[in-house]
Design brief:
266 residues; Serine Threonine Protein Phosphatase 5, Tetratricopeptide repeat; elongated
């Protein structure tokens, strides 16, 4: 009943790509970040762009001195553990970046953006423990933002293969940002492709996302495709039609045409 990701490259892939490029709620993990300017615990950055963030998202940081005593700053002197297949050129770049970031954080450990970027650099190196520690501490500094939790979800699901923890962190990311569409999609893909014990939750998470984001054509199309693949033609047609109606309302003629073609296949 389930197909591989490669086998699922139907017209839906084209539709979702268009949605993705059109910016309908999607964010991409790019391993890049515009470094925010020297944000102390008392400052709120005007703009922060992170590996999983959206430009313009404001972060109010929690001063370390007022925090729970269990929040321990990760070891900023830890040796970098590189994955065996990382090239020497990348090692040198990552080492330079980590040195810059750890030096900055030793001077001011409350810099939320630097912890996020440090996690990215560790992840590039293949040092997943380093990435985990950096992002967990970023989550401590900015508990109200979804970014570190989403990054941790990605890390646990796609690299550490710890699906319960990945689920927990993805869940936390959409609790913090209910319109973070990629968070619902990540959970859907986790349930559908990997977390077999919870495969039955694949459509539930999309329905939950739609209840909070009723105009999301992305979620409608994913749900329609799920129903189509599981043989529920009636519901597949229902959600393709909903997506078509919304695409027309948004004036997205390309998506409208593709959805009409998809409906004809049912």
């Amino acid at each position: 009943m389930q197909e591989s990701k490669i086998e699922r490259k139907t017209i839906l892939s084209v539709i979702l790509l268009i949605i993705f490029l059109g910016g309908v709620g999607f964010y991409i993990y790019t391993d890049t970040k515009k470094r925010s300017s020297n944000n102390s615990a008392s400052n709120v950055p005007e703009k922060t762009t992170t590996s999983e963030g959206d430009p313009g998202y404001t972060i109010k940081q929690i001063p370390v001195e007022n925090s729970a005593p269990t929040a321990k700053i990760p070891n900023l002197n830890r040796a970098i553990i590189f994955r065996a297949d990382i090239s020497q050129e990348v090692r040198e770049i990552v080492t330079k970046n980590i040195t810059r970031l750890t030096t900055s954080l030793k001077e001011d450990s409350t810099q939320f953006g630097d912890w996020l970027e440090l996690g990215v650099q560790y992840k590039i190196a293949g040092d997943y423990e380093g990435a985990k520690g950096a992002w967990e501490y970023a989550g401590f500094l900015g508990p109200e933002t979804y970014i570190p939790w989403n990054n941790l979800g990605d890390l646990y699901v796609n690299y550490l293969k710890d699906y319960p923890k990945g689920e927990m962190y993805y869940r936390k990311s959409i609790e913090k940002k209910i319109d973070y569409i990629q968070g619902y999609r990540a959970l859907y893909e986790l349930y559908y492709f990997s977390y077999k014990e919870k495969w039955n939750l694949a459509d539930d998470i999309l329905l939950e996302g739609l209840s909070k984001n009723p105009k999301s054509t992305d979620l409608m199309i994913l749900l329609a495709q799920y129903y189509k693949e599981t043989g529920d033609t009636t519901n597949a047609r229902t959600y393709y039609q909903k997506a078509l109606t919304e695409a027309k309302a948004q004036g997205n003629t390309t998506l409208t045409d593709l959805l009409k073609q998809e409906l004809q296949t049912l």
